[in-house]
Design a protein that fits this description.
The protein is mostly beta strands. It contains 1 helix and 24 strands. Strands 1-22-19-24-16-15-14 form a 7-stranded antiparallel beta sheet, with no helix packed on it. Strands 2-3-4-12-7-10-13 form a 7-stranded antiparallel beta sheet, with no helix packed on it. Strand 8 and strand 9 form a beta hairpin.
Length: 249
């Protein structure tokens, strides 16, 4: 799966492919890995579970998730709950103390990053919480990018960078633009918030994404991106060129 290139679309209706194998029967958990990069410990796929209430623990990986169905609440070390509902995206930093609680079925699209050989503290006295992406709250923090892409103007609000520097999450905005056809240098999940973005692959395959759509573009995919007007997206980027142990390139 790590050699796969090409855009992967996840429908806004939340339909999931068949699972690889059930993870557990009580609660009933299923996972389907769509893409994996073992060298950096990254997995991309869909996950579903019936009601669950986990024990309080340090979260074992950096994660970005988009809720397709259901809702979940995450409690931090101070007992504060962060709710996430259908259609929302959120990230969880590795090693933060958290308790995952949900009632009923939850279905998500996920990106997880757990670098091989990197160990983390299990000290649940640390502080931190889940980060829910909110377009209205992030809009005032958008900053113009110096290097414009494809004749457009772009703005970015970087919300989260993991401790090893190889995963970033945020909100990005662009005016009308069209990028060059070239190999994609990163792994990226994009959730379109507003507007429309078209990704054209080298073989002529065209993917059009509108509000609510989620796409994953693996590193190495030869493609170009374009938009006819203003568009916004939430993104989760994993850069394989960044060394997980040192955070340096």
């Amino acid at each position: 799966m790590e050699d796969r290139t090409g855009v992967i679309r996840l429908g806004r209706d939340g339909a999931a492919p068949d699972c690889d194998a059930p993870l557990s029967s009580v609660p009933e958990q299923n996972r389907h890995v769509l893409f994996e990069d073992p060298a950096i410990g990254m997995k991309v796929g869909t996950w579903s579970s019936t009601g669950i209430r986990q024990t309080f623990q340090a979260y074992p990986q950096d994660a970005f998730m988009h809720v397709l169905e259901g809702c979940v609440s995450m409690l931090d070390g101070d007992g504060n709950a962060t709710p996430v509902e259908k259609g929302q995206s959120f990230c969880l930093p590795r090693s933060i103390p958290v308790r995952w609680e949900q009632q009923g079925l939850l279905h998500t699209f996920f990106v997880t990053l757990s670098p091989p050989g990197v160990t983390d503290s299990q000290d649940v006295s640390q502080r931190g919480s889940a980060i829910v992406l909110d377009a209205d709250a992030l809009e005032p923090g958008l900053v113009a990018e110096q290097n414009a892409i494809g004749g457009g103007k772009q703005r970015d609000n970087l919300v989260f960078t993991n401790r090893t520097g190889n995963m970033t999450v945020g909100m990005w905005e662009t005016s009308a633009f069209e990028s060059a056809m070239q190999p994609f240098s990163i792994h990226e999940v994009a959730q379109i918030i507003s507007g429309e973005i078209t990704i054209l692959e080298e073989d002529g395959t065209e993917h059009v994404f509108g509000p609510g759509d989620v796409a994953f573009v693996p590193r190495g995919t030869v493609c170009s991106w374009r938009s006819k007007g203003t568009a916004r997206k939430f993104y989760a980027i994993v850069d394989p060129k960044v060394t997980p142990h040192t955070g340096s390139q």
